[in-house]
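Q: I have two molecules that I believe assemble together. Could you output structure tokens for the complex as a whole instead of separate predictions?
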Amino acid sequence: MALVKRKMGNGVILEAHQVSKWFGGVQALRDVSFKLRRGEVHALMGENGAGKSTLVKMLAGLHVPDTGEIRLNGQRVTLRSPHEAMRHGIAMIHQELMPVPDMTVAENLLLGREPCGRLPGTIDRRKLKSEARRLLSLLEAEMPVDAPMRTLSVAGMQTVEIARAIGADASVVIMDEPTAAISEREVGALFQAIRTLKSRDVAIVYITHKMDEVFKISDRITVLRDGLHVATDEAQNLDEPQLIALMVGRKLTSLQVREHSVPGRCVLSVKGLSRAGAFRDVGFELRRGEVTGLAGLMGAGRSEVASAIFGLVPADEGTVWVDGSEAHIRHPEDAMRLGIGMVTEDRQQYGLVPLMSVCQNISLAALNTCCRGPVICHASEAEVASQSIARYGIKVSHAEQRVNQLSGGNQQKVVIARTLLPEPEIVILDEPTRGIDVGAKAEVHAIIAELARQGRAVLLISSELPELLALSDRLLIMRQGKLVTELDPSTTTQEEIMQYAMPI
Amino acid sequence: MLCQFNREKIVKRWLTTWNSQIGLVIALLVTCIVLTFLRPHFLSVANLTNVVRQVSINGILAVGVTFVLLSGGVDLSLGSMVALTGVAAAHLAHPGGYPLMVPVMAGILVGAACGAINGVVITRGNVAPFIATLGMMTVARGGALVLSHGRPVSNMSPAMTRIAGDWSHIPIPALILAAISLWAAWMLKNTRQGRYLYAVGGNEKAARAAGINVRRVKFLAYVLCGALAGLAGVVLAARITTGQPNAGVAYELDAIAAVVIGGTSLSGGLGGVGGTLLGVLLMGVIGNGLDLLNVSSYYQQIVKGVIIIGAVWFDRRHQSSGKE
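A: Yes, here they are, computed for all two components at once.
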């Protein structure tokens, strides 16, 4: 039956029709339409934050579109959960794989679909294993079905996930950066598995940043940019420069290029910084009055380097000099004592204490300045907080308001205010404008420009190239854990940056 | 101008604290009114004095464990620490022996030391608080049995037993509880350690990124909790005029229950001493009421359990509806 349905030709199986999605005040997707045909590998490309993940999460039932609809075989469907998507034959292989590590390969493979034993509620273990072996043999994968899942490599787990999708009779398989963490040889095996899926008329959505892969494996390519659909075309009609041109080309509207200043002396220098699995041999300098931009794709190791300098997750090797003397930074406390401040990437996880008030969140890192000994002076704390609220234009009804009641932009300004309150000489900003609206973005840009004017050294990590180009005095590019080059923002282009940032 | 602004803020802050506890206050008042109608004796000075005397020990423990719960941890070793510190204090409290300060300080210090061990194991060894303090529960109980050879340590000086007595008709344990509570409430609101407890419990990663020494904050919470357990052990020993190695079984559960009824979140970062005291009082009044109504102690346990679950259930629903 299922087989007959699949042989119905090369038509569209899954379709997103003019879908839009808002997160808070930010629109992640705007009227995007996307059509997936049976038996095709459809690559989805775009810069960080272009909306790829949001789109596939809608197809996989992890997000529900605010407007527009998802159509399966021409019928409108509502996918409220991954489970519901799975029932419709849509499987997603996640970037972070989520198997049950202590269960065996066979148990993971047939999780939720275990063959019944003779007694009700029991599992026929022999059938379980033979079915697991059958599924894996379809992918020509050799692995012991009795081994615990945790003993497998990332590639092995991926194979199990793909076999699981086949076992569940999926007609659509979504892969979010499946080759991000596997070796060359394993990529070959993955492509073989993808071809097997194709031969069974399964449609595949494939997100990747790797150019060579895209042209090797995909039939069609869709490019997203800033939540908009830019182009969909046959892979053979495109080449690499064309593809990059489609991906970048974000508009520079409302972004004023900062007037550049003469940099002062070097205040922070990093040499040979490495951490296993994150970054290797990174070295650079930060100078007073200068904004150093750090570009790279997600997973290139930018945030990891910043976290290492700030002591959140110390590096394994390498040295950091602050003001000419070697610094041993094991904790953020150490970094702050040396005059380093950092606005962390994920403000929900690392930034805010959600149940505390705006005032308490602002003063948290500099509480000792409004204390007499161990005792807090509430009047001076309120004074300091209201100064910050006024200075950074944080919109609150009163300083005692809980910080989780604010909008994303205002929450971000609270985190920035807290970081800047101890007056750090070296400021690290990791994606300071992610997920905030245009107005708040412009205000954050003004704060960054002001920091440089005051003579502080700024390290700016951002996935928004126009932002980096407009604000930075120098631009460092990271790729796959390594610092690959330094570019001059006044002469370089987004295309050139992407060429360096794209993995080879 | 500034003064008025401050006063407004103080009123606002006071109202928000009041608001989160208003349900508890109403529950307490309703219980008292109902009991007064059923048993007029309830409102007598003698009975009310009895209630505060009874809740004092649980109150001291509950204040201590409030610190730990605020930091996002838990302490299951309180009951055993009460026994160990009681035995230790009783050993040093024989008539004609040391001055009163010695057994009292010994009890508190032994408690603080146990808390410090908990703190080190949890913050340095990265052992889950549940497991670390579960281990300490057994260790401290064993320590109490070793120190006392399994027998109650009696023959206590009158000075020591007077700790459980009255001071112009007010039970001294209740005065101790009041003093501890005032100090704890002040500490949580007005010191850096207090603020950092909320920050660590509210979002540990953010607290660390803000340069807070998370380990030290947690360590101090366990030390304080242990010291207060030591104080409770001394008070209990004085009250029963012996150091009982088998005393205090399951006291930690009563203390944690009172804290949770008082609105402190088990996941940390939310709550305070005011709520804890209300929780302690509510549990005490209900226990006393059931005694007055001649409900068998077997049934009382069932009632107590139902109240704990009911209070938290109600509180969670209230909170989630108030969020949006």
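A: One point stands out. Chain A touches chain B through 32 residues (CB under 8 Å).
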